[in-house]
Amino acid sequence: MTGRGSPSRFLAAVLHNGVGRYVRQLQRLQLLFSPTAADARGARQFVEEEALDFARRHPDVVLYVSPCTGLAPRLLAEYLNGTVREELIASKTSEEIMQLATKLAGQSGLDIIRIRKPFHTDNPSVQGQWHPLTNKPSVLNVRGPCLQPQ
Amino acid sequence: MQHKRHCLSPLGLPGIQPVVLELLALRAASARWGEKTEEVTARKEEKELEAGKIIDQEKSEPSLICPPPRRRNYLPPEDVQSCLESHVQEIFGPSPPGNWLQTPLNENRLKYRLLAQLAAELGHAVPNSQLHLMRIAEDVLNFYRTPVKDVSKFDELCAAELPPNLKIVWQQ
Q1: I need a labelling partner for B60 at 20 to 30 A (CA). Which of A62, B9, B90, B142 fits?
Q2: pLDDT tens digits, residue range A11-30?
Q3: Alpha carbon B92 to chain centroid distance?
């Protein structure tokens, strides 16, 4: 399948984040898990051991821990631009969940689709884009390109 | 069908009475075995339930108030070592100084006396599963030095000081 079939976007930072100060784009992380299910063991270990560290290291992210019986364990990440990303954490270890949470905390809420160019700039040219009449005598503008007169 | 009473349910569902599970299993089995067996065994179940209720009523007549549940909390007092030493000296006789920790607990009667006295005094007994681990007096000392708390980890976490961006939504 070519790139035309799937959506794509240009590389961009949300509102030029990072040019001035950096604002973390992750607003809140909700950890939904069951207090008794077997596949939520990693989630429970994460809450007991590492959730406090995570919360201290990322003071601008709100972490909601909600034990609820009878559902698959998942991590819901909500970003400042409204995107909600849901990740299943069934049968994952505590370290893997920590890595996943750190990854989500570093992302912006932009869509994860093909990026057309790995670079982007607002000022592509400082002195002006070259064209064939740059650095040529300006009389060419008047009489046009022609052979040397005899 | 009788042997089912004493073994765990195959589903291992917590919080459901074993009698209810039996009835569910019976209803499932009735589809295979026909109506008659269900009725007969259901009648037997009802009779046994009534008998159980009568026995319970007879037992509970002397005291109608339910006693408070036993707390499993244990905080080791500071003089655990001296207390244990005095008990060991009393039961096993005088031992070489500085080496009372290594007194072996081979004699079962003396071991029982020691552990029973310690349990009565400190209010914390060695569980059956760890009796075989108590070989010398040092093991007993280490056991009685470890504190035990019966708070679940979540309750402990809720009670502890949380940073302002960590919220635990605990629906209980």
Answers
A1: B9
A2: 999 999 988 999 999 999 99
A3: 30
